Amino acid sequence: MNGLLPQFLAAITDIDRQDIVDAIGQGAVFALMAVGIGLVFGVLRLINFAYGQLIMAGAYALAFASEHDWSVWLGIGFCFAVVLTLSFGMERLVFRPLRTQSPAVMLVTTFAVAFLLQNAALLIDIRDGTLGEAAVSVASLNQAVTVWGVDVRKIVIVAIVIAVVALGALALLLGRTTIGLQMRAAAMDFPTARLLGVRANRVIGSAVMLSGLLAAIVAVILTVEQPFVDPSFGLKATIVVLVGVVVGGIDRLWTATLGGFLIGFASDIIYAALPTDQTVFLDSVLFALVIVVLLVRPAGLFAGGRSSLAERV
Fold first, then answer.
1. How many domains does the chain divide into?
2. What are phi and psi of 229, to 5 degrees?
3. What is the residue-wise DSSP string for 193-239?
4. Containing structural domain, residue 280
5. 10-residue mean pLDDT series, the chain (313 residues)
6. What is the helix, strand, coil percentage profile of the chain, to 5?
7. Cα 240 from Cα 159, distance rounded (Å)
8. Which helix (H) or strand (E) holds 146?
9. CATH of the domain at 223
């Protein structure tokens, strides 16, 4: 690694518009993942470690559709159906029965669900004697178009637009609808909210299903970008997003979302800046920066003092 830091600092100054656009697209995807994780955390105070496996399941659904020559839109619809069904089952069979248990019990349960889904995917995947499936039917969405002299992949444009629309819709949902206000009340004080008439099952179910909807969207975007699907698909991205959520400030949905965007943007910029033969050190550089940030701002990069607990969602 001799000379890596000077090379990296020099390369940072050579970042062009192409790299910035790609980084914004990556940040948008990671922001969507952060919202999905943050919604469940805001209501249940639980980090769902099975979130990455929901994305993996959606990717396998797209690969299945591709294998059977389904149309792109039919495959995407199947992806949404699979992820939302798994989210519904997870809420009914895991989160609802165990929500009164200790946080440690629920946390371990999400790990168990994650490994269960991953091993189920492995058993299904190796039925033909090979590991991994190709989802080629959505590859056309990864083609590039030229915008102001910059080659922008269609999926990057889609990711940015969907992220903006989804965040705007979520803001309206939380601020203007009954279920949104109930979710915010539950995030502030769940026991008191229930005494005031907030229906716990409805609030938790809504948060989990919204989280699943975002997981399905992310599954489509990531599969377009990386059409080879295996049981570890989306796992690394989920871990990075979890780190970003903590860096941004896990107690508030908006700071967690900003943290997700920032770590996605930073990872792409760092990858572009590193010399080709040094890209294996991407994770080392990224997590070293994370440690520095947390040493300086333990509560999160965007945490501004003692915020109201109602702002968690």
1. 1
2. -110, 130
3. HHHTT--HHHHHHHHHHHHHHHHHHHHHHHHHH--EE-TTTTHHHHH
4. 4-312
5. 52 65 87 88 81 93 89 92 94 83 84 90 80 80 72 81 85 78 66 68 83 93 89 87 84 83 85 68 75 78 56 50
6. 75, 5, 20
7. 18
8. strand 144-147
9. 1.10.3470
